[in-house]
Write a structure and sequence with these properties.
440 residues, alpha/beta, Rossmann fold, 2 domains, 16 helices, 16 strands
Length: 440
């Protein structure tokens, strides 16, 4: 039981959908479990973690989204910024005075500005959690524009004036200091407990449940018989209760995305085209491949239309939306993960890879400058530069699947490295690295 006299107030700001901001949710959960009462401010378009919703130490303050208006882009951006700034300021004035505000960046505008001004008058500390740079994301769509220059000025000015900061890589820590004289503590993303390996029973139950809405998980033919009572595309349950993986099962490839411009899914589609050609040429050596891409975002329908136009015979691609509790189980049930996040700044790391590693899933990740801080080529996964390399890695992994003796030693070695990664979880890492900063 928490001693109420020791509880301190904290505020966490996400100027985005808090349900799709896992790192900030993990911060809130950890703070609430370590003698902090947390006011969590952001948009609630997706449900937050159940532990946060149920915690007596967390109050969620929902910001009102900016209304859809038919305006020129520059006017829309100005009005949206003013709307967000006022909404955030009004909410901050209404909460208990916090010891500190933890503010996610990006977006810097107007979150960091409003949080800094509030902290100045309330005599609270501003702590920025640097996930990436706002200006580098804006640069993807509007290089050398005024808004990019403004964002860079905002990040440099207010970042240097924050009391403390966290960042996600050593490369970003060094860059923040040399670029803007900002000091930050490296807090690597680590998988929480729900991202872990699961039993074959749990895999079978997941495939049965997902098979109700996703055809790729259902078996094409009726494999039930005198001995088999339940069957999916990947597993069979026998009359004596034993569950087995099917020898003739497809390979299961998984990726997740928010369908934004910093992930080019045409790379994966081209790699799957190449896999299709090779599998058709050598069907005795290559299995059917089921590719599941989870998530939602602005470019999803564009890619759905491209996928619908494909006439693949050996590849089936589905884009389901999964419940929070099913996503970790899908990762733990898959054979190989793919990450196409290449980082607009070249300084952040994809959390999806952390989640995959937490579930014991090896990953093929696209190369960028600091990816080697997470993915070690040939040790816990593979790094590729273009679709041909990705196709080669997928083809090699699934050659003579599922029992390629020639690959057994390599796969065993990769699993050894992944098990080592799984030993350090978010909670322990946060207590060692972040809690001392918050307790200052």
């Amino acid at each position: 039981m928490t001693d109420k006299s020791k509880v301190q107030n904290a505020c966490v700001i996400v100027l985005g959908d808090i349900g799709r901001s896992p790192r900030m949710q993990y911060h809130v959960k950890s703070l609430s479990e370590n003698d902090f009462s947390v006011d969590f401010i952001g948009y609630v378009q997706s449900p937050p973690l159940e532990e946060i919703r149920a915690s007596p130490n967390v109050r969620i303050h929902e910001l009102n989204p900016f209304p859809e208006l038919e305006l020129p882009n520059i006017l829309k951006y100005i009005f949206k910024t003013i709307w967000q700034a006022l909404g955030l300021l009004i909410t901050l004035i209404s909460i208990r005075k916090p010891k500190f505000i933890l503010c996610q960046n990006p977006p810097a505008i107007p979150a960091i500005i409003v949080a800094y001004l509030y902290c100045l008058f309330a005599r609270s500390k501003l702590i920025i959690d640097w996930h990436n740079y706002t200006y580098s994301i804006l640069e993807l769509e509007a290089p050398d524009s005024l808004i990019v220059r403004v964002a860079k000025k905002v990040e440099s000015f207010f970042g240097a004036r924050a009391a403390d900061g966290f960042c996600v890589t050593k490369a970003m820590k060094d860059d923040l200091y040399t670029r803007w004289n900002v000091r930050a503590t490296v807090l690597y993303d680590r998988p929480p407990q729900q991202f872990q390996s699961i039993s074959i029973q749990d895999k079978h139950n997941l495939f049965l449940r997902l098979g109700e809405s996703v055809s790729a998980f259902r078996t094409a033919q009726d494999a039930t018989g005198e001995d088999i009572v339940e069957c999916t595309a990947f597993t069979t349950k026998h009359r004596n209760g034993e569950i087995k993986l099917r020898d003739s099962r497809p390979g299961l490839l998984v990726s997740s995305t928010s369908w934004t411009p910093d992930e080019d899914f045409s790379i994966l589609l081209s790699a799957l085209d190449q896999y299709e050609r090779e599998a058709l040429a050598m069907p005795a050596h290559y299995p059917n491949l089921v590719c599941i891409i989870t998530g939602k975002g602005p470019l999803k329908e564009k890619y759905r239309k491209i996928v619908d136009s494909k006439s693949w015979k050996m590849v089936k691609l589905e884009m389901p939306w999964l419940e929070n509790e099913d996503y970790p189980k899908l990762l733990a049930s898959s054979d190989l993960g793919v990450c196409l996040h290449y980082s607009s700044s070249g300084l952040d790391l994809p959390m999806k890879v952390v989640d995959m590693f937490g579930c014991g899933l090896p990953v093929c990740a696209i190369h960028f400058d600091c990816i080697n801080e997470l993915v070690k080529h040939g040790e816990n996964g593979f790094v590729f530069q273009h679709h041909q390399e990705l196709s080669e890695q997928i083809g090699r992994w699934f050659y003579d699947f599922p029992s390629n003796i020639a690959l057994a030693n390599m796969k065993q070695d990769i699993q050894k490295h992944l098990k080592q990664f799984q030993t350090l979880r978010w909670t322990e890492n946060w207590r060692n690295v972040a809690l001392p900063v918050f307790k200052k």
